[in-house]
Amino acid sequence: MSTVSPAKSAGALYWPVQMRRNIGVRSLFIVVLAFLVAYGVLFPGLFSASGFAKFTQSWFPLALVAMAQAILMLTGGISLAIGATVSLGAVIAATTMAGPLGVAGGAAAVALTGLGIGTATGFIVVRLRLPAIVVTLAGSFIIGGAALLVLPRPGGAIPAWLSDLLAGNTPAAFVLLVAIVLLWKLYLATPLGLSLYAAGENPVGAYRSGVPVDAARVAAYAISGLLSTGAGLFVAAQTGSGDPVIGTAFTLNSIAAAVLGGIGFLGGQGTMRGALAGSLLLSLMISVMFFLGFTPVAQYVAQGLIIIGAVAIPQFRKVQQ
Amino acid sequence: MTAWNESVGGKRALAILRSRPFLTVVIVAAVWIGASFASRGFGAYGHLRYLVELGAVIGLVAAGQTFVVIAGGIDLSVAAIVTVSAISLPLLSWPADPTGLASILAVLALTTVIGAINGLGVALLRVHPMIMTLAMATFLQGLLIIIAGGSAVTAENPLVHWLGNARPAGIPAGIVLWVIVSAIVLTVMHATPFGARIFAMGANPLAASLSGVPVASTTLAVYGISGFTSGLAGVLVLGMNGQGYVGIGDPYLLASIAAVVLGGTSILGGLGTYAGTIPGAVLLVTITALITVVNASPGWRSILFGSLILGLLLLSGREQARR
């Protein structure tokens, strides 16, 4: 370290490490790229400004919940309450933003709710040592119930200018996504972010090496909650109103996107870029089915089949090799 | 004191007193006694019998779930399978089948096959159980809406009607069914080589496989059992309800997992018993009954249910540090 300038050695290390982390998801990137090209050929509208905006808007909430699930799975956790949390974020946005709190106050309420839910869940799972699956399953009832209390039936309103900004013909969703990815990179450089992988891969070893395992895991739950309610806010802006059960499908889709992206269930395996690619693939599939005129019900059936297939085929090849 | 402790009988008695299933029974008894003081009529024989009858449905679903969880997996498709059973049974009826037994057997075969497909995906395609069964649930949900639409279907099946309503010797047929299934499940789980293999697989799949446990076929069987008992629960719930509709099975997903975990079975696999799941199921029904007594809005009911389960988990469901 003393002979080489630190900046140079860090730079020389950074890119090879990043390339090595791509190995597991390289085939996924190729598939996503192929899908994107096919989609662009089928629906040339993608390359207009509004087409691109609409496309990223349909991807954005799924990308957020995939990140929310991935960050938990990296620490060895999981959440079955993502869907309910998205719903709660949506109804809070729809009831506060048009009221006296205004957009800023509403957004703050949404963010605080997400952080609060996440921190509470993380505390219960990590400190009280309860299994994450059961806690979040029970949590999904509590959070879903809270969403019903806030808004018993679809309604509420989002200011029109906000809907136009987030879900109109602007690439705001894409810009936000880039910003969130940059923030994620920044987070990975903080002590808590550095601990994330260690806490998931080998909690006991990490703990003995002085890694703040518990804090890293609770922080992961808090960030996950924030991303989920954020997705809810965006969904509410897309539809212009709130719906207490609008997020239900996100639970399965978030897990599916993370797993498609190569995130392991045991913790410490996978990358966020993989999860994002997985969510993009899933979102592409859903859009293609929509454009091909599948009814929502047939979409359910096809989605179930595709998820199993997409997860199974790479595993199957690995077994055969 | 020491002499009593060192005797074999004393040790066994202590082990039972300290075991999770016993703790769950104590909690159930405490809740029942407390509730019957608080609300008149709660402790009446008829009401408690009704609670156990409702618990039978959860108990049946949770029987398969216990097998799956002990084997190191999880089945998130049980709710969808219960619905499949309750909806396809009224649709499957033949004039040549006056008792209705043939259609029940056909439905049970169908749900067992659905479960076995889950097992196939988990064992051979190596899809994670959570993904496999969630995707199966999504798939079945879509299929059910296509088949049944939004309308409820009425069961004309005499045997199903008997199962849901008859009271041989004053005991509801559903409870009798549950007792029989429990006896079989406990025997298979704790007194057969198959049961031993399940525990071995859940504790350490690699070691089990190296020791000659046929992991693939055992996994297939475990998910098949889960499909079967969920199907049976669907038949019972159809009998008690008279009608099947999309969503009839939905409450049983969380309930089955909660019953398993409240009964002291480790969600990580390899540790547990159905003997704990049985009081776990009764406990859940009791909670639901108490919440109904409170008479709150759906939102509050959902919050109460989730919070009570969380609270009970704190009492009895904590993962011990293992290995």
Supply the key terms.
A: 321 residues, mainly alpha, 14 helices, 77% helix, globular, B: 323 residues, 15 helices
At the fold tier of CATH, the topology name of chain A is ABC transporter involved in vitamin B12 uptake, BtuC
The largest beta-sheet of chain B arranges its strands as 1-2
The percentage helix of chain B is: over 70%
Largest interface: pair, residues per side? A-B, 45 and 47 residues
User: Helical residue percent of chain A?
Assistant: over 70%
What is the residue-mean pLDDT of chain A, rounded to a whole number? 83
Structural domains of chain A: how many:
1
Question: What is the N-to-C succession of helices and strands of chain B?
Answer: HHHHHHHEHHHHHEHHH
Distance between the termini of chain A: 42 Å
What portion of residues of chain A belong to β-strands?
Answer: under 5%
Topology:
The complex is a heterodimer of chains A (321) and B (323).
Chain A: H1 6-22, H2 26-42, H3 49-74, H4 82-96, H5 102-127, H6 132-150, H7 160-167, H8 172-189, H9 191-201, H10 203-208, H11 213-239, H12 250-260, H13 272-291, H14 296-320
Helix pairs in contact in A: 2-13, 3-8, 3-11, 3-12, 3-13, 4-5, 4-6, 4-11, 4-12, 5-6, 5-11, 7-11, 8-9, 9-11, 12-13, 13-14
Chain B: H1 2-6, H2 8-18, H3 20-38, H4 45-70, H5 78-91, H6 101-123, H7 129-148, E1 153-154, H8 158-165, H9 173-191, H10 193-203, H11 205-210, H12 215-241, E2 243-244, H13 252-262, H14 274-294, H15 298-316
